[in-house]
Amino acid sequence: MRFFRFVTLFALVLVAVSCGLPSSYYLSPPTLGPGGAQGDPTSGFFQILSTSANSEEEFRGFELYYKFDATAPTGTEINLGNSTNDVTTLTNAGFLTVCSGDSTRDATPTQRTLPLIPIQQADRGTTFSVTINVNPQSPDATLVNYTYTAAAAGTVEVQIDRHVFDTTTGGCKPFTFIRWLPGNYSTADADMTNLGTLQSSTIYLVMYAVSYGLQDVSTPIYSYPVYLGYLTLSSF
After folding, report:
1. With helix as H, strand as E and coil as C, how does 146-209 read?
2. 208 near 225, Cβ under 8 Å?
3. For the segment 41-81, what is each residue's pLDDT rounded down to a tens digit?
4. What's this model's pTM, rounded to 2 decimal places?
């Protein structure tokens, strides 16, 4: 009888472990780079490295989270990237996922394809730099993109957009910083509400990156966040 009770209890424990409990599995995060440098406020781009650590069977690519600030970020906001935090820490702090500007993948923030930056299986575990260019130099440019060159994929360049749906275009609103295009930025936009009434032509873009993967085929898993720095963005 005791043996039967033990077996029954053991079976219940297995069921509890395999169903319904949150996973503690974490992926290896992307690496700051090259050289481990964060985005310089005036550089116009962020960079991360995909390395040999990003070779887990579950790994699929990278996700980007961003937030606009009215002043240069300090304190807690720039210290969310550590092994005790996860993506919910970012979303609780007001960070939003970047949308893909590739219309074949996703058009709205709520129906986007994960991950934002997919990495082909043959390139997982190899080292290459991913550059997120968020400050185009052309006066009317709206193209903000990520780009990288890897052995299997070759050169990849994809436009990325804001976490804001534009009913006029039927897609996400673009990042545009050199000039404020009429209607492109509104204080009602999901990524602008924390700024209140926009008083300045300069805003600050804060960005984090995480590794994204699937555990047991269907369960999304993430690495801890990596702080990429912030950029100063002007309409002039």
Report:
1. EEEEECCCEEEEEEEEEEEEECCCCEEEECCCCCCCCCCCCCCCCCCHHHCCCCCCEEEEEEEE
2. yes
3. 777 789 999 999 999 999 999 999 999 888 888 888 889 98
4. 0.84
Structure tokens that stand for 193 in this block: 């509400």
What is the domain partition of the chain in residue ranges?
Answer: 2-234
Mean pLDDT of all residues in 182-190? 75
Say if residues 120 and 101 touch (Cβ distance below 8 Å): no
Rounded distance, CA 117 to CA 31, Å? 15
Q: Please tell me the distance from the alpha carbon of residue 129 to that of residue 49, in angstroms, as a whole number.
A: 5
Residue 8: band (very low, low, confident or very high) from pLDDT cuts 50, 70, 90: very low
- Structure tokens of 103? 């219309």
Strand pairing partners for 77? none
